[in-house]
Design a protein that fits this description.
nine-stranded mixed β-sheet; 14 helices; Alpha-Beta Plaits; binds iron/sulfur cluster; single chain
């Protein structure tokens, strides 16, 4: 299982470095044939300036467009971000995240087809059907172009989680609601990845995000590009260099349990640089990582008060909150009410999906751990 690992300090270098990472895997023509319609799926989680390091950088997308074009493919940039999936939302995301700049002067097109279709996943372990956006279903090939980040709900977000953005708008919230257990949700992500089966995955790790990702963390220079034909393997290597073991990232644990990848990054065939050259074990984990329910492997279904004491929850920072209501609109179980123009969370309804934290445009939805949680963790150390 091959993963290429190449240093890349700045975005202006990235075409050459991404080309090198793909050449190590056999070159772009090993993945793309002349005339292929190729969906390039970036991580445009929400409208963010590329400098915030929450989204795939436009220079990385431009480099992938160039590679696809050189192989004779027809690149299409497609994303279904958080929130509604319509023409206006796509226009806003593309302009905010720099997709227009990435495609300028190339043969790439930005997808504005907001249609989707139901698909069956006969081999799915958690879902047997779902809906997927038209451009992905109509493409000959898909390339997942992910961003190296921590994630409040899934610990880490990479090539596999990136494909959740192939599910149209509000259908994502339905899945969060239906699969309110983190492991079940991540098993669904593995089902979805296996169904879409991208031909190539590339990771923008030039600037990544640590702390309370995927949008409210802190950007951090990581200086690396990864590529692989296998998104699980790429994620195993990328998660390893930022200090996660496979059992700490539920999509990886699930892929290991299914026998799709080995349990450790050392068992992968790493091409280019070595893993040890890029280790960043001090990357800050999200607050939700320090969830005693998981760290102590306590069974689900405990008393609600004990659960609240031992896990992390979203909590609005009233000073920073501008009362836009985005958190309320995106909350899958409807656990948020706006009172006096500020969000109030119903703890009993909250499923800890952290969509509110992910989509808050002002980083005003914090991840909160109780004093008891902090104290107990200190005692355990
Ligand atoms: S999304 Fe953020 S800024 Fe908007 S109401 Fe919720 S917490 Fe406040
Ligand atoms: S309050 Fe936030 S974390 Fe809780 S269910 Fe709603 S969106 Fe998810």
């Amino acid at each position: 299982m091959k993963v290429s690992l190449v240093s890349c300090d700045t975005y202006p270098q990235c075409y050459e470095r991404i080309k090198k990472s793909v050449d190590l895997l056999g070159g772009i023509t090993a993945f793309i044939n002349k005339g292929d319609r190729v969906v390039i799926k970036p991580n445009f989680v929400s409208r963010k300036n590329p400098d915030e390091a929450a989204t795939t950088h436009p220079d990385v997308i431009r480099a992938v467009i160039r590679l696809v074009s050189e192989a004779g493919g027809e690149p299409i940039i497609a994303e279904s971000p958080g929130g509604p999936y319509n023409h206006a939302a796509l226009k806003s995301i593309y302009s905010g995240c720099g997709a227009g700049r990435a495609a300028e002067g190339t043969n790439a097109v930005l997808n504005y087809d907001t249609g989707f279709r139901k698909v069956m996943l006969p081999n799915g372990q958690t879902i047997k059907s779902t809906t997927v956006i038209n451009p992905v279903l109509d493409a000959d090939k898909v390339i997942s172009v992910a961003k190296l980040k921590t994630h409040a709900m899934t610990a880490y977000t990479g090539a596999v989680k990136n494909l959740f953005g192939c599910i149209p708008g509000t259908h994502k919230a339905e899945l969060h609601f239906r699969l309110d257990d983190r492991d079940a949700f991540c098993s669904m992500l593995v089902d979805l990845y296996e169904f879409i089966n991208p031909c190539l995955c590339i990771m923008d790790g030039v600037w990544g995000m640590e702390g309370d990702g995927p949008t409210a963390g802190v950007n951090r220079h990581m200086g690396v590009i990864l590529a692989s034909a296998n998104g699980h393997a790429l994620d195993l290597a990328a998660a390893h260099i930022i200090g996660y073991s496979s059992h700490e990232v539920p999509t990886l644990k699930n892929a290991c349990d299914r026998g799709l990848i080995p349990r450790t990054a050392q068992e992968l065939e790493i091409l280019g640089d070595s893993l040890s050259e890029h280790m960043m074990p001090d990357v800050v984990k999200p607050e939700s990582h320090f969830n005693l329910l998981r760290l102590l492997s306590l069974p689900p279904g405990l008393n609600k008060k004990i659960t609240a004491m031992l896990s992390a929850s979203p909590k609005p920072d009233i000073e920073k909150c501008v009362g836009c209501g985005e958190c309320m609109r995106c909350c899958p179980p409807g656990a948020i009410e706006m009172k006096n123009n500020k969000p109030v969370i119903n703890e009993g309804k909250c499923i800890k999906c952290f969509c509110c934290q992910e989509l808050c445009p002002k980083k005003a939805m914090k991840i909160h751990r109780s004093v008891m949680n902090r104290l107990m963790l200190k005692l355990l150390k």
